[in-house]
From TrEMBL:
Region (Disordered): 714-766, 824-873
Comp. bias intervals (Basic and acidic residues): 714-739
Main location: cytoplasm
Protein name: Serine/threonine-protein phosphatase 4 regulatory subunit 4
Compositional bias annotation for Polar residues: 824-857
GO biological process: blastocyst hatching
InterPro entries for the chain: ARM-like, ARM-type_fold, HEAT, HEAT_type_2, PPP4R4
Sample GO molecular function, one term: protein serine/threonine phosphatase inhibitor activity
Length: 873
């Protein structure tokens, strides 16, 4: 082995020396730190911080306030509300005097803590108002003028709350009389600012003659103060004062002061005067608005572009309220000017004439751009009010171009605000909502998820207005643009899925539940339903998976084609219920819970009861545990005596879990579930008084499911008779144009199977049935989704059992361990053939059927399937 070259050796020596040097430095630091650590734990300090454990709460508080450190005193003051609740008399007698002494020399933290504690004692009503005023009021007043502005504001907030509850006499002697001297020019600016806020609060507490004689002179004096901060503060209190003194005094006293302040040399005072005038518009009559306020507003708007941009921000924020308050007194020319002023604000900072000066620094340019963004954001906020201002009928001519600019604004806060307002705009436009369809697509495709999140809060209502609004001559042009909606919705979902904002993704999937009311079931089936499956099986966020599962169930609920419904059910059972991943089987149980909530009892028992209770044999404890939690809901779907055989199967599975379960957590849940199942009352085939509302709800669900089958069969008959299929557009139009009549309970509905021939009823009866079945979605699925919300709070109870020929085949139900038959796991990914029947259970059928009638050659016992799962964990 060759020795290293000299250079390398020297480098190595250097690095070693450096290492030893670092170690010596560390040792020196350790030596330096040791005395510091020892000095923090001297016996003297330990003795000083030690408190006798035998002291009571009151004695300990007194001791700490007298001899403790600041942090201990602050702790006692923070604990003052507790002491007042426990022993108010001793706290007031012994602790509060010590608190007064400590606050004279207390720091900022202790002062802030005391202000909060005093307010808490008042809010908790620990003592009477008289006692509180006698004990605490003078302490609050004493510290109002603390040298620290934060402390002064904290005590002022506490005082303003106290003023609300104090009696008039106390207010007059303790607060109003001293206020006369505190508001004089000889006092400090802070004292006069505090006086302004107290005057604004006191006005509502006294009679008119006291206000006129004692308060209004102080108000006038402070409005003419030499300091602009005092004038601005007093101006903002004039709104409260005007509400307390009435209309007449407001016109004679407050309005002249506001007019004078609106011409003040300080921009902050003029801004305060303008905002106060806007807030008081409702008090003034038409003459005052037209002769006094309108000229002031015009002058303010004309000078706003030449003044500071902060005035523009306030003006843009109050413009909607201003136009609403002055509506009706504008001349046509004034109306047009205000509208043009609003349009100019909407594009402020985006046009060439609004460019920056060459003499501005980058920081100034950035600050100015932020102000311009705030102005445009406020304009977006006021857009619904401006629609009212111009009349919705004139939207296309007057405001559409402005709306287009706001929806395409380069800044996210502007687009976010207009997305929030989109629903209000849609409601105002009513039949003209089709005019903003392209802007809806634009916001759905926005690159910012914040904009999408703001838009989807009211997405169901917006889409319903889009699909149902405007039954006018322009209907064809509106619905021709609806296909643009589907790519935008799918792109929005994919963009949300690719981001880390899973809550936005979850919310979007929940809102997709409205789609059956907007687009056809075929469009949902081919563009959205498979995507829900993919999310359920591949997404890693549980709330997102559950949202996709529930939306898929709603899609299935309103699907109009029997073949597609069967395929979805088969996929749910094979890919989720019999999936290799235990996570998929857990999602299957979630789906079963949604099925129970959304569908009728008979639907769940027919298709999902047996696949669900098969999971009692699942090799994964978490799956069995989740099923145990679901079993009470599963049992609630049964009706006696029709479902007696299913009840026996359920009892057998629970009995096996009790006897064979080895996991202690699952066993504990099984035992609790057994007790709950025993306490449950079974629903009967006939209506029961205690379950009457639930039975009616379930009967309505079942009736709607039968109407779906009727609708499909009658459509087939119509196609055979007319020789041409009914387009989805025509069907949707008829569904909207028709109102669903209330079906009488006594009407019996027979549903022809897919293999049965056409009925012998007359064409008129067929036509009435078709109209009724085509329109039931419009009744059952309104904007608030009331039926589905009711389902969430009420368990499903079956009313009667449908007998549908050709739709179901019974499967063999045995009481042995190996009785559950299912498809092989290898066929889970295959597509379901419409000719292959689902494993189902029909009410009122016999218990034993030839196993060959299942039509499946690849059935295996459940035990074999479980073994294959164990080999593939």
């Amino acid at each position: 082995m060759h020795p290293p070259p000299p250079a390398a050796a020297s480098a190595m020596d250097f690095s070693q020396n450096s290492l030893f040097g670092y170690m010596e430095d560390l040792q020196e630091l350790t030596i330096i730190e040791r005395p510091v650590r020892r000095s923090l734990k001297t016996p003297e300090e330990i003795e000083r911080l030690t408190v006798d454990e035998d002291l009571s709460d009151i004695e300990r508080a007194v001791y700490l306030l007298s001899a403790g450190q600041d942090i201990q005193g602050t702790s006692v003051i923070a604990n003052l509300p507790y002491l007042m609740r426990q022993n108010p008399a001793e706290t007031l007698r012994r602790v509060l005097p010590k608190v007064r002494e400590v606050l004279h020399v207390a720091g900022v933290e202790m002062q802030l803590t005391a202000a909060v504690s005093f307010l808490t004692i008042l809010q908790e009503d620990s003592v009477s108002i008289h006692t509180y005023a006698h004990s605490f009021l003078q302490v609050i007043l004493l510290h109002l003028e603390h040298r620290d502005a934060g402390v002064s504001n904290a005590w002022l907030e506490t005082l303003l709350f106290v003023i609300e509850v104090l009696p008039k006499e106390t207010l007059r002697h303790e607060i109003l009389n001293p206020l006369v001297s505190k508001a004089q020019l000889s006092q400090t600016v802070q004292s006069r600012l505090v006086s302004c806020k107290i005057l604004g609060k006191l006005t509502n507490k006294f009679d008119a003659h006291i206000i006129k004689r004692e308060i209004l002179p102080l108000v006038k004096s402070l409005c003419q103060d030499v300091e602009y901060e005092v004038r601005s503060c007093m101006c903002r209190q004039l709104e409260n004062i005007a509400q307390g003194i009435g209309t007449e005094l407001t016109k004679s006293v407050v309005l002249p002061e506001l007019i004078e302040l609106s011409r003040d040399e300080s921009s902050s005072v003029r801004l305060a005067a303008f905002e106060t005038l806007v807030n008081l518009l409702d008090i003034f009559d038409t003459d005052d608005r037209s002769q006094t306020i309108l000229p002031l507003v015009k002058s303010f708007c004309e000078k706003s572009f030449k003044a500071d941009e902060s005035i523009l921000i306030s003006l843009s924020f109050h413009l909607g309220k201003l136009c609403h308050g002055l509506y009706g007194i504008f001349t046509p020319d004034q109306h047009l000017r205000f509208l043009e002023f609003y349009k100019k604000l909407c594009t402020l900072g985006l046009q060439q004439e609004n460019g920056h000066s060459e003499n501005q620094f980058p920081s100034q340019i950035l600050e100015q751009e932020k102000k311009y963004i705030s102005v445009r954001k406020n304009c977006a906020y006021n857009f619904p009010a401006m629609i009212v201002f111009v009349d919705p009928k004139n939207f296309h001519m007057e405001l559409y171009s402005t709306f287009f600019c706001l929806c395409h604004d380069p800044e996210v806060p502007v687009r976010y605000t207009i997305a929030i307002c989109f629903y209000e705009v849609s409601k105002l436009l009513n039949s003209g909502v089709y005019l903003i369809h392209k802007e809806l697509i634009t916001l759905l495709q926005d690159e910012s998820l914040e904009v999408l999140d703001a838009l989807i809060d009211h997405l169901p209502e917006i889409l319903e207005l889009m699909s149902a609004g405007g039954e006018s001559s322009a209907q064809d042009s509106k619905f021709s643009s609806l296909p643009d909606l589907i790519p935008a919705l799918t792109a929005a979902e994919q963009r949300a899925a690719a981001s880390l904002k899973w809550r936005t993704h979850e919310k979007l999937l929940q809102k997709y539940a409205c789609l059956p009311h907007v687009i056809s079931s075929d469009q949902i089936y081919y563009r959205f339903l498979q995507r829900m499956f993919t999310i359920m099986m591949t997404n890693n966020v549980l709330p997102v998976q559950k949202a996709a599962s529930r939306t898929l169930c709603i899609f299935l609920r309103y699907n109009r084609k029997q073949e597609q419904r069967y395929e979805v059910i088969q996929k749910l059972i094979e890919q989720l219920g019999q999936g290799k991943s235990y996570w998929n089987r857990l999602r299957f149980l979630d789906t079963c819970e949604f099925i129970i909530e959304i569908f009728s009892k008979s639907f769940f028992c027919k298709y999902f009861f047996l696949p669900a209770i098969e999971l009692t044999h699942d090799p994964v404890a978490n799956v069995r545990m989740k099923l145990c939690y679901l079993l009470p809901k599963v049992k609630s779907t049964l009706k006696i005596p029709a479902d007696k055989h299913l009840l026996q199967q359920l009892e057998m599975c629970v009995r096996k879990l009790l006897c064979q379960e080895k996991d202690k957590d699952v066993l504990a849940i099984v035992k609790r579930t057994v007790l709950e199942l025993d306490r449950m009352e079974m629903s009967m085939d006939a209506f029961q008084k205690k379950f009457y509302e639930k039975d009616l709800l379930d009967q309505e669900k079942e009736r709607e499911e039968l109407l779906l089958l009727e609708m499909e069969q009658l459509e087939k008959d119509k196609q055979q008779n007319d020789g041409r299929p009914m387009s989805d557009k025509t069907f949707e139009k008829k569904r909207r144009d028709t109102k669903t009549p209330t079906l009488p309970k006594s009407v019996s509905i027979s549903v022809p199977g897919p293999s049965s021939g056409t009925t012998s009823t007359s064409k008129e009866i067929k036509k009435s049935k078709l109209i009724r079945s085509q329109s039931f979605n419009n009744q059952a699925f309104h904007a608030k989704y009331g039926n589905l919300d009711k389902c969430a709070s009420k368990s499903s109870v079956g009313a009667y059992t449908p007998s549908v020929s050709g739709l179901t085949k019974t499967c063999m139900i045995s009481l042995t361990d190996d009785s559950f038959r299912t498809r092989n796991a290898s066929s889970a990914a295959t597509s379901f053939s419409p000719n292959t029947p689902l494993p189902s259970t029909s009410r009122g059928t016999s218990n034993s059927v030839d196993p060959k009638s299942s039509g499946s050659k690849d059935v295996q016992p459940r035990k074999a399937t479980l073994k294959s799962r164990k080999s593939n964990p």
